[in-house]
Write a structure and sequence with these properties.
The complex is a heterodimer.
Chain A: E1 4-15, E2 18-29, E3 33-37, H1 44-51, E4 59-64, E5 67-68, H2 77-80, E6 82-85, H3 97-109, H4 124-134, H5 150-162, E7 168-172, H6 180-193, E8 198-203, H7 206-210, E9 215-220, E10 223-228, H8 230-235, H9 237-244
Parallel strand pairs in A: 3-8, 3-9, 6-7, 7-8
Antiparallel strand pairs in A: 1-2, 1-4, 4-5, 9-10
Helix pairs in contact in A: 3-4, 3-5, 4-5
Chain B: H1 2-10, H2 12-26, H3 30-53, H4 61-76, H5 82-104, H6 109-129, H7 131-134, E1 140-141, E2 147-150, E3 153-156, H8 160-182, H9 185-195, H10 197-203, H11 207-233, E4 235-236, H12 243-256, H13 263-278, H14 285-299, H15 303-312
Classes of the chains: A alpha/beta, B mainly alpha.
Chain lengths: 248, 313
């Protein structure tokens, strides 16, 4: 597949007088894992919220598979083929892990039907089970999502995002708050998911994504500082100064 | 005991039917049993918003009262047959709920409660002013349904047993319909919105539309309850629209257990039973009901039915 799956042009966001993001133009090739990195306050979360539809941008345009989707309401994104996981864990806490994923899968086919019985919708429970298996949560299927460990909830969120069968998966700091061991497992999972679809990952920890990303985008003070393959980014003098420099 | 309870929880519709069947035999008089049916339905309708969508409405009096007035007006002023009167009440509740919902679903939490309260006050004064149609301050009098014409049959609605049977069957039908709706894909959409709005949106649910649909459904059930209330009382007091009527639904749902399907109905039964027993002894009966309510909030958050469900499961 050639051509970008997602492209942004002159993307900008203002919150009152504060300019969180300005003039970002970039494109994301299909079937690749692209990571968006940058120091604290670089505009990563704003960028994520714009491309995932949480807010409409104050400037610029967003195109998905060649279609302009600027200003499309959040709830339409799943049907378009874009799914996301949140930086702060967001599940349906009182419902079981299985029901969480089943509802996410149901949302794609039936939302307002009051006549049918939902357990008669074909295939949803099976699909939810296989997604739980994919993220390694089969043994927790019957547990309320709120009772799962933090790392398990994050995996559950990924399963819910996958339930809408996205062609583009957006992950906002998917390993935030995970233990080192959980992080390794999660990164392995993300790598595996990226084989079959496009993944855009927003991450604070540069080291973590260097090894698994095909491409990197570096944001700094709300602007695009650099983009390229991991080795190019590693060698980029500006990036070294603003990002790696602060650690050395 | 556990087996009986389990059966009851697994078959809520049959369980509700059993409850409606024995209710007139455990209440001191049939009129109280009818009130429990009507307010039970009202509390269940209210709980669609509170328990299932997670929005506290303080304006449901407009839905019960609107349904009651529409049914009464259809009977008194338009002389429609009884079935059409009940339908008019149901539709009025639905319509009022749709309008309230369209204006209120952008808000949540305390703001939703305030907006719905304000809109129900608009309804109160609207009906209060429309005196030629509603009787204003005196309420709508003369909602007298004496005979029920069913093809091939004519029933005397003034007989307590007939009245209870007819209203009981309608309420049971509504309960069965509600149970079915809660088991539908839309039932899951409501839970998703209640549990986590941001995640529900990311999954693809239009949160405002789900809330509006739920509110409209809630209005249909509360409007039906209002219509039955008007036929039972033969009058629609203006107090039906008063905001305290909205508060009564909140108390019933919480007292019975808003996290269960049948809890609000049980709450309505206990509330009205307490009222009827205590009010014969002291005019300060709300004080006693209030103390019971506070005790449940402090000691058994799940409510009467919710606690029972948790214990027996």
């Amino acid at each position: 597949m050639s051509g970008p799956i997602l492209s942004v042009e002159g993307l900008g966001m203002r919150f009152g007088g504060f300019r969180a993001l300005h003039g970002v133009t970039a494109s994301f090739p299909a079937r690749m894992l692209t990571s968006v990195i940058g120091p604290n306050g670089a505009g990563k979360s704003t960028f994520f919220n714009l491309i995932s539809g949480a807010f409409a941008p104050s400037e610029g345009r967003i195109a998905f598979e060649g279609r302009d989707i600027t200003g499309t309401p959040q709830h339409r994104f799943a049907a378009l083929g874009i799914a996301k996981s949140f930086q702060i864990t967001n599940v349906f806490p009182a419902l079981t892990a299985l029901e969480n994923v089943r509802i996410a899968a149901q949302a794609l086919v039936s939302r307002h039907d009051v006549w049918r019985r939902r357990d008669e919708l074909p295939g949803l429970a099976e699909e939810a089970r296989s997604l739980l298996e994919e993220v390694g949560l089969t043994h927790r299927a019957g547990a309320p999502a709120g009772s799962l460990a933090h790392g398990e909830q994050r995996s559950l969120e990924i399963a819910m995002a996958l339930a809408s069968r996205p062609r583009l998966l957006l992950l906002d700091e998917p390993t935030a708050g995970m233990s080192p061991k959980e992080t390794v497992v999660a990164m392995e999972l993300i790598r595996r998911l990226a084989r079959e679809r496009t993944v855009i990952l927003v991450e604070h920890k540069m080291k973590l994504v260097m090894g698994i990303s095909d491409r990197l985008l570096v944001l700094h003070h709300g602007e695009l500082l650099a983009e390229g393959a991991p080795e190019e980014i590693r060698a980029h003098p500006e990036v070294r100064r603003v990002y790696l420099g602060e650690r050395a | 005991m556990r087996a009986v309870a389990d059966w009851f929880f697994r078959h809520p519709v049959l369980g509700a039917g059993f409850f409606i069947l024995i209710l007139p035999f455990i209440t001191p008089y049939t009129a109280l049993a009818v009130m429990i049916l009507v307010y039970g339905l009202y509390a269940l309708g209210f709980n669609i918003m509170y328990g299932h969508v997670g929005l506290l409405s303080f304006g449901h009096s407009a839905l019960l009262g609107g349904g009651a007035y529409a049914c009464g007006i259809a009977l008194v002023h338009l002389g429609l047959p009884w079935g059409a009167c009940i339908l008019a009440g149901t539709l009025a509740g639905t319509l009022i709920a749709f309008v309230m919902g369209a204006l209120a679903v952008r808000t949540r939490g305390i703001y939703f409660a305030m907006v719905t309260l304000a809109l129900s006050q608009v309804a109160y004064f609207g009906f209060y002013q429309a005196e030629p149609w509603t009787g204003g301050e005196n309420g709508l009098r003369g909602v007298n349904l004496r005979t029920l014409g069913i093809p091939g049959l004519s029933l005397d609605f003034t007989t307590p047993a007939v009245r209870y049977t007819v209203i009981g069957l309608l309420v049971w039908g509504a309960v069965a319909l509600l149970a079915r709706i809660l088991a539908s894909p839309f039932g899951a959409a409501m839970l998703a919105v209640r549990e986590n709005e941001a995640r529900a949106k990311a999954c693809g649910f239009d949160v405002r539309l789900v809330r509006l649909q739920a509110m409209t459904l809630s209005g249909a059930f509360c409007g039906l309850a209002g219509a039955l209330l008007a036929l039972h009382l033969s009058i629609v007091p203006i107090e039906t629209l008063h905001y305290t009527t909205s508060g009564v639904a909140v108390m019933m749902a919480i007292l019975g257990g808003s996290n269960t399907f049948f809890g609000p109905f049980v709450g309505a039964a206990v509330f009205l039973f307490l009222e009827s027993v205590v009010s014969t002894r002291t005019e300060h009966w709300p004080l006693v009901v209030g103390v019971v309510f506070v005790l449940f909030i402090l000691l058994a958050r799940q409510g009467i039915w919710g606690t029972l469900v948790a214990r027996l499961r």
